[in-house]
């Protein structure tokens, strides 16, 4: 019998006010009907989270970590099933889905050891000033469709560990894995501590203006992030925004072209390029430009573009029709401005498939270079001068991450120091680690996640400043 997906409200798995179809992007077939929440169900979930807050926040960090540890074990026990569902709803190849599940469980476990300690700011025998950190109350998480499980865990872990309760809303096109995490959590967490609601894009504005929600943790596009920030302003909600990026990879002239092409290709094409920190434009020295383009074109040509559930598929479909059409538009536009060296033709089949596509000879102001493509299409740009390429990499409203590739580590690191983004990786990519803070600069975000710094964002500083009564 087909799995029946449910919302999680106040410790109960419940149906929605209505329902909507979830599509497999590889086949365009309906894989399930997902329950859809309305405003009344949102209010029920928020009220339940508010009721659960006093008892949950009164528990010690160790007690809450115990619950989350059991949750990590239970998610791990169902991770094969979750990985298959992730491939079905998101499209990514099954090995990448298994990796996301492993990373989600590992991330949740890595949070468990984190603690927020009281800080004695002054204790001079008379005046004692202590900064405590108290939880905020009911928090809300809003997540996108590219990594539905790990991005949920990045919020759920620290929010609950710090003593908050949570109402979570996945993206409309990838809600099912979040429903299953809710189903698992129902048997582990006290009622109301974690709630799951699904929608077709209607609930976000209701959550960001809800008077009882203290904080919004949002991951998604910069355009929606700006709306979240504007509507959260009304009630001065705490807001964490993890937004878009247009990450540059700078290849230095001491790297063999073939090696550089392999590294850049992997960083651009994982998850069909639908990663906030994917390499979205590559800058390559003119001395090796032709060779680099030839090598990366070979890698693109060797990709196995297929349904992610088929073993051997290396690039799955785009996650949804809107993104599929947006990326096609960027490709068609780039064909009129530069030279196509790989891919570029949409296969005549069902599903939102775009083969890995590489362009060269584009100007930096071409939309494919200047905008976030969020798909398996990479512009390779030529440069001659290091100062100039650094300026070109920084010439963006975004500042999420970036990479520098060089055999001389000191020289590569010196270049990395000049890149204006929240993270710069040198000779590696996607080295996201739950113990290392992650945050975008400029229009890529506000505040951030991961590390103890991320945990602190789910707390309010509370100063107690005392002197003896004289
Ligand atoms: P999106 O902004 O369209 O949607 C994200 C979420 O916001 C969805 O759950 C959606 O239902 C919800 N939403 C829609 N309208 C809303 C509103 N008015 N108020 C509140 N919420 C609303 O993003 P997407 O297309 O799902 O995701 C892709 C984007 O996410 C890319 O730009 C990518 O770079 C970014 N992203 C960033 C990070 C990061 O850590 N910085 C990670 C992953 C993805």
Task: Characterise the protein shown here.
The protein is an alpha/beta fold. The chain has two domains: about 5-245 and about 445-465, 3-Layer(aba) Sandwich (Aldehyde Dehydrogenase, Chain A, domain 1), CATH 3.40.605.10; about 245-435, 3-Layer(aba) Sandwich (Aldehyde Dehydrogenase, Chain A, domain 2). About 40% of the residues lie in helices and about 20% in strands. Strand 18 (about 405), helix 14 (about 410-415) and strand 19 form a beta-alpha-beta unit. Helix 2 (about 60-75) packs antiparallel against helix 4 (about 95-110), helix 3 crosses helix 4 (about 95-110) and helix 4 packs parallel to helix 5 (about 150-160). The N and C termini lie far apart (about 75 Å). It binds nicotinamide-adenine-dinucleotide (NAD). Nicotinamide-adenine-dinucleotide binds near residues 143, 146, 208, 228 and 244. Nicotinamide-adenine-dinucleotide (NAD) binds near residues 146, 242, 276 and 374.
Task: Write a short abstract of this structure.
The chain is of the alpha/beta class and 470 residues long.
For this structure, the CATH topology of the largest domain is Aldehyde Dehydrogenase, Chain A, domain 1
CATH class membership of the largest domain: Alpha Beta
Oligomer: single chain
- Corresponding CATH superfamily of the largest domain: Aldehyde Dehydrogenase, Chain A, domain 1
Query: What is the beta-strand fraction?
Result: 15-25%
Number of helices: 15
Low-confidence segments, given as residue ranges, are none
- Rg is 23 Å
Report on the biggest sheet: 7 strands, mixed
Strand order of the largest sheet: 14-15-16-13-12-18-19
Can you name the CATH architecture of the largest domain? 3-Layer(aba) Sandwich
CA-based shape:
globular
- Give the averaged pLDDT, no decimals: 97
Distance between the termini: 74 Å
**Please, how many domains?**
2
What would you call the structural class?
A: alpha/beta
């Amino acid at each position: 019998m087909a799995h029946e997906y449910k919302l999680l409200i106040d410790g109960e798995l419940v149906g929605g006010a209505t329902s909507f179809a979830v599509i497999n992007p590889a086949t365009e077939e309906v894989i399930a009907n997902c329950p859809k929440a309305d405003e009344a169900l949102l209010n029920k979930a928020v009220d339940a989270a508010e009721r659960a807050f006093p008892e949950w926040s009164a528990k010690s960090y160790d007690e809450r970590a115990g619950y989350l540890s059991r949750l990590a074990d239970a998610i791990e026990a169902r991770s094969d099933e979750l990985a298959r569902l992730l491939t079905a709803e998101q499209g990514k190849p099954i090995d990448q889905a298994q990796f996301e599940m492993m990373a989600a469980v590992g991330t949740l476990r890595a949070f468990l050891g984190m603690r927020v300690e009281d800080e004695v700011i002054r204790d001079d025998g008379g005046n004692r000033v202590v900064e405590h950190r108290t939880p905020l109350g009911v928090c809300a998480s809003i997540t996108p469709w590219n990594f539905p499980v790990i991005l949920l865990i990045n919020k759920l872990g620290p929010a609950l560990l710090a003593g908050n309760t949570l109402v979570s809303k996945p993206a409309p096109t990838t809600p099912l894995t979040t429903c299953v995490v809710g189903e698992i959590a129902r048997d582990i967490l006290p009622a109301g501590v974690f709630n799951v609601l699904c929608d077709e894009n209607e609930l976000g504005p209701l959550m960001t203006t809800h008077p009882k929600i203290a904080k919004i943790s949002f991951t998604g596009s910069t355009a929606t992030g700006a709306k979240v920030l504007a509507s959260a302003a009304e009630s001065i909600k705490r807001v964490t925004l993890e937004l878009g990026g247009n990450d540059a990879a700078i290849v230095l002239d001491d790297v063999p072209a073939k090696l550089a092409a392999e590294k850049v290709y992997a960083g651009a094409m994982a998850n069909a390029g639908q990663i906030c920190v994917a390499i979205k434009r590559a800058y390559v020295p003119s001395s090796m430009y032709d060779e680099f383009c030839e090598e990366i074109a070979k890698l693109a040509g060797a990709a196995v573009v297929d349904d992610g559930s088929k073993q051997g598929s290396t690039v799955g479909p785009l996650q949804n029709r809107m993104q599929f059409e947006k990326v096609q538009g960027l490709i068609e536009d780039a064909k009129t401005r530069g030279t196509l060296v790989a891919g570029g033709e949409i296969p005549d089949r069902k599903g939102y498939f775009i083969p890995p596509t590489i362009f060269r000879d584009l100007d930096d102001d071409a939309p494919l270079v200047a905008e976030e493509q969020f798909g398996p299409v990479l512009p390779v740009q030529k440069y001659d001068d290091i100062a100039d390429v650094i300026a070109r990499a920084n010439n963006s409203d975004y500042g999420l991450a970036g990479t520098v590739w060089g055999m001389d580590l000191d020289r590569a690191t010196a270049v990395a120091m000049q890149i204006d983004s929240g993270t710069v990786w040198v000779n590696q990519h996607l080295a996201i680690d739950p113990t290392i803070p992650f945050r975008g600069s400029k229009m890529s975000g506000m505040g951030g996640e991961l590390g103890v710094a991320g945990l602190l964002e789910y707390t309010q500083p509370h100063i107690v400043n005392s002197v003896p009564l004289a």
